[in-house]
Specification:
Blueprint: H1 3-152
Length: 153
């Protein structure tokens, strides 16, 4: 055997060792990939029910949100009706206030006039009574003076 053959033999041996190491690494890598694949399958088996429950929960939430939206639409409709009613009530209230002012002015003027006439009549009657009392008093005083003059003279 010559040097070339020995070198070839060493190279073939080294290649065989490298091939065995590569095969051993591939086997180890296969086991790692199998373990990772099994872990993914286990995770998938465990998370599938969770995702199914999450989907169901999301569907329920969407249903509840739809019902809430329907309720809010109904509430908004009722609020629009209440706004309309409130506007009408404000209009009616303004009309009633105007009517009350008209009735007050119509009824108050004659009442004020009647009260003024009544006050005037009372005052006139009181003055007339005072004037009558003064006349009677003057007449009595005159008679007394005359009586005194007659008694002296």
């Amino acid at each position: 055997m010559n040097g070339g053959e020995i070198a070839a033999l060493i190279a073939a041996g080294a290649f065989a060792v490298v091939a065995l190491v590569a095969a051993w690494l591939l086997l180890r890598l296969r086991r790692t990939v199998d373990a990772a694949t099994q872990a993914i399958r286990d995770m998938n088996e465990r998370t599938a029910p969770i995702f199914a429950k999450a989907d169901l929960t999301i569907d329920n939430v969407n249903t509840a949100l739809g019902q809430a939206q329907t309720s809010l639409d109904a509430v908004n409709l009722q609020l629009q009706r209440v706004d309309t009613i409130t506007g009408h009530a404000a209009h009616v209230s303004a009309n009633v206030a105007n009517l009350a002012n008209v009735v007050t002015s119509v009824a108050a003027n004659p009442l004020i006039k009647a009260a003024a006439v009544g006050y005037g009549v009372r005052r006139a009657a009181t003055r007339r009574a005072q004037v009558e009392e003064e006349r009677e008093l003057r007449a009595v005083l005159r008679e007394r003076r005359r009586g005194k003059r007659r008694g002296r003279g």
